[in-house]
Amino acid sequence: MASGRHHDRATRLLTVPFGLLWWPGLGPTGAVVAALAFLFGGLWLSPDLDTRSNATRRWGPLRLLWWPYRRLLSHRSLLSHCPLLGTALRLLWLAAVVTAIAAALQPLGAPGPGELLEHSRGLWNSRRPLLLAALVGVEASSWLHLLQDGDPIPRLPRPLRRLLRDSLR
Q1: pLDDT at residue 3, as a whole number
Q2: Smallest Cα–Cα separation from 142: which of 131, 155, 151, 133?
Q3: In 3D, which of 69, 36, 65, 32 has the Cα closest to residue 50?
Q4: Closest residue by Cα to residue 68 from 38, 89, 41
Q5: Mean pLDDT in each 10-residue stretch from start to end of the chain (169 residues)?
Q6: Which of 47, 60, 83, 127 is deepest in the core (most CB within 10 A)?
Q7: DSSP 91
Q8: Given this model, what pLDDT does residue 2 score?
Q9: Domain map of the chain by residue range?
């Protein structure tokens, strides 16, 4: 299993090459979007957000947003360190937090959740290739992390492990 420093170094080292892979199909804008998504995914949306990690500390005061996520998932669980599922869960968690904040700030004049959803739909319809490059970038950085950790089979989440253990008694 690699250390946080090794994960960060590998992410930084592979950011530009990953972005350049997208240049032929999406041009320079797509290359930049893919590279930034890879970097963001590796440094801020790491599978290690389920621990007190470099990724968690990078969020600064906003790291509190990840506290419930960290409490609900055990480190290297199926829900945090599984390809596709782990990234999807982190992105859904982030979307849920943004939606909750938007709902709380709507009375103060901020755009509400409905407006954010409508804007997201418009963005998806008008910039789908770039958004797909961004999603693949975030997922690719997660795969890099998992490969460095040697995580072929993540652990079950804590509540499922307890349930399984109790049922075997």
Answers
A1: 67
A2: 151
A3: 69
A4: 89
A5: 73 92 94 96 87 86 88 76 86 93 92 91 93 95 84 63 73
A6: 47
A7: H
A8: 53
A9: 4-160
- Token code pair at residue 119: 């804007």
Q: Tokens 């939606």 sit at which residue?
A: 99
The two structure tokens encoding residue 139: 């997922």
- Distance between CA 105 and CA 52 in Å, rounded? 29
- In order of 25, 29, 108, 167, the CA distances from 22 in angstroms are 6, 9, 41, 49
CA–CA dist 163, 79 (Å, integer) = 16
Closest to 122 (Cα-Cα) out of 114, 45, 26: 114
What distance in Å separates the CA atoms of residue 81 and residue 73, rounded to the nearest whole number?
A: 10
pTM above 0.90, yes or no: no
Place of tokens 């590796």: 42
Residues 6 or more apart whose CB falls under 8 angstroms from that of 34 comprise: 18, 19, 21, 22, 26, 133, 134, 136, 137
